[in-house]
Amino acid sequence: MTSNNLCAAYARVSSDRQNPLSPTDQVRKCREFADTISLIVLENHIYLDEDSGVGSDRPAFQKLLNAALSPARPFDTILVDDTSRLSRSQWQSMRTIEELKFAGVRVIFVSQGIDTDSEQSDVQMTVHGLVDSLYVKELAKKTHRGLESCALLGLHTGGRCYGYSTVAVGEGESKRLVINETEAAVVKEIFEMSVTGLSLKKIAKCLNAKCVSPPRSKSSNRGTWCPTAIRAMLKRELYKGEIVWN
After folding, report:
1. With 0-12 CB in 10 A as exposed, 13-18 as middle and 19+ as buried, what is 10?
2. How far apart are CA 164 and CA 157, in angstroms?
3. Strands (E), 131-209
4. How large is the C-alpha radius of gyration of the chain?
5. pLDDT, block means (10 residues), the chain with 246 residues
6. Cα pseudo-dihedral 96, 98, 101, 103, rounded to 10
7. What is the number of other CB atoms lying within 10 angstroms of the CB of residue 20?
8. Residue 88 burial (CB < 10 Å; 0-12/13-18/19+)?
């Protein structure tokens, strides 16, 4: 058995709101297609990325590329269910495909019937790449519009802020910021120490000495206060009652 008979499979979901079965379904379609053309999907070369963005800095994707471009790669073909699973950025997709083709690696997009061994693949990739790219741009506009609506209604637009907690509003996913009294007391103490003339380093040292939990602390690693975090807090508009968005 040679590497010509062996292939890898790649699948991804771009957010935790997508169907959690999506990667499994993508791999299943790749397996079914592989059977029709006598390819064997290597079990240890099935790459899955979950809750990924549109960029190429995806852990499994990078591992796939490293394996595909290595001198002793174990496969010569990569199966992907859809061009958008590779990337929704047209230039990024084309760059990746050209790099793989130069290395002698064949890429097949199962649901669209695109095979980089075909002379028509460049045209097909360009067309589908434009569609994927437009989807991202339209999604960005819709997301921005939704956040703008939240801001106008006085709802939270995302992100964490020490001293505040989020509470659900209504039956949807809308949330509103409310004061976290425990953390708010720490915020007030920081401002009071700053007013007395204490330096950022001394404020941090004081909080750490009292074992005050810093922002984004984890139970397994409590972390420590640092001067840069305190500087950012002292300059944050939200602590003055000003909500800034966009």
Report:
1. buried
2. 13
3. 164-168, 175-179
4. 25
5. 79 64 85 93 92 72 93 93 80 86 92 84 67 65 73 77 84 80 92 93 92 69 81 88 79
6. -80
7. 10
8. buried
